[in-house]
Amino acid sequence: MSGALERVVVRAPGKINLSLHVGGVDGRGYHALATVFQAVDLYETVTATRADEMSLEITSEVPGEVPLDGTNLALRAAELLRTECGVRDAAALHVRKQVPVAGGMAGGSADAAAVLVALDRLWGLGLGAEALRTLGARLGADVPFSMLGHTALGRGNGADLTTVLTHGEWTWLLAVPGGHLSTPEVFRRFDELVLAGGRVPPERPEIDERQLQALSGGNLELLADTLHNDLQAAAFALHPRLEEVVEAAERLGAIGAIVSGSGPTVAALVEDEAAARTIAAGLTEDGLVESCLIARGSAPGASVLEES
Q1: For residue 202, how many C-alpha atoms fall within 13 Å in the half-sphere facing its CB?
Q2: Are 58 and 23 in contact (CB under 8 A)?
Q3: What are phi and psi of 14, to 5 degrees?
Q4: Which residues have a catalytic role annotated?
Q5: How far apart are alpha carbons 158 and 295 in whole angstroms?
Q6: DSSP letters along 88-100, please?
């Protein structure tokens, strides 16, 4: 397929889960989820340039190893698009990373989202947002949300999205404690804890309606009160210092704190940037974190920055 463009630059946001309710497992082994995603203004920026063969280069502003082989979601997204659309074109991909690696903030999914949008433009496919989100869902439940951005309710495996209206400002301190957690391993530990506790996960989990009220009304205290993560106990069990980070963030002045997704990044809701800096200094002084990032919530989804 031919197209006039030689280069497209797209950025896509990382996310945090304001709530994550986990239900039973379906026949394919997927847990039913009800989650409220919020995109944050830490971005993965993908530059796609026409080339004779596919390649991937990464420049990272955050620590951590990122695979450059076929397991990388950016390359998988490109191959999915080529296969589905019968494309023989190729591209050199460059990813600039701001989202913590393997931190429960969907950096890899943001890469995939940005690649799908960029290559759709570069190769002149014209698939449109809905078709790209449907394709993205095949790579992971977080990919469609990274395309949509802002704040959304996710159901099913998380890819069935409904936009949530928000008012006000949302400032987050993202505390990165080091180490990484495997999402499948966290879910396995969750299942073990559920079994040991004799609980039966709901077939269709529900989110706390008060959280939607907090978001629409810009109520920080109510939002903090409704932060919830069913995977948090499993993450605590697999990453011994994680619980200490959550407790310390709240002790140092966070309105609320939660493990984001499968972790280990801790998202602390704060009043403003000054409060975030104070808490970050305390966590660093106590030796509890490798790094801290300040981010604003309800950031826009994948968007084209440049094309030529």
Answers
A1: 10
A2: no
A3: -75, 175
A4: 15, 142
A5: 23
A6: --EEEEEEEE-SP
